[in-house]
Design brief:
Elements: E1 4-8, E2 25-29, H1 37-42, H2 44-59, H3 65-78, H4 83-147, H5 151-157, H6 161-170
Helix pairs in contact: 2-3, 3-4, 5-6
């Protein structure tokens, strides 16, 4: 994500038939560590929170999430990052981060499953359309061969794919 973005509620609508009568815009600031330095300089708490979350993200690539959170909290306490808060509320912070990460994982899994379901439905719909188009295509060929009195060619085209392709080319289909 960039340093900041503007999100519009209407962008979430699936059907955008007309301009919305009223629009909600939200300014979103990237508070990941190393982003929005000016903002981080203005709020030590926000900067420290960003450092904690950054540590959790980095460490969770190397170890189980619970261990990553414990280690990140320990490192932050040692480095005087949210020191007093983390000493007093260590368990609350850990549970909060675990809940947030679990929610993100569940949402990501649901999104993946929804995509797969949509992909399967699209594949089935595509097969139906392809089948229908194929039937129409062959029906046009059959009609042309019947009109030309080419019954044997029609019979052969029903069982011989290469011959059927030859007939399609011959009739510019």
């Amino acid at each position: 994500m960039e340093e900041e973005a503007v999100l519009r509620l209407s962008d979430a609508f699936t059907h955008k038939e007309q301009e919305p009568v009223m629009e909600l815009k939200a300014r979103v600031l990237n508070i990941n560590y190393v982003h929005n330095k000016k903002l981080m300089e203005q709020s030590r708490t926000l900067r420290d929170y960003s450092i904690l979350v950054g540590k959790v993200k980095t460490l969770s690539r190397e170890m189980e999430l619970g261990q990553a959170i414990d280690r990140a909290i320990e490192e932050c306490i040692e480095e005087n990052v949210l020191h007093d808060f983390l000493v007093r509320r260590r368990n609350e912070v850990k549970n909060s981060i675990l809940t947030e990460y679990d929610e993100e994982r569940v949402l990501a899994e649901l999104s993946r499953e929804s995509y797969e379901d949509g992909e399967k439905a699209g594949y089935v719909d595509g097969q139906k359309v392809g089948y229908t188009d194929g039937e129409k295509h062959f029906a046009r060929l059959a009609q042309a061969l019947l009109e030309a009195g080419r019954i044997e060619d029609l019979s052969r085209a029903t069982t011989d794919k290469d011959y059927r392709e030859k007939m399609y080319k011959e009739y510019d289909m």
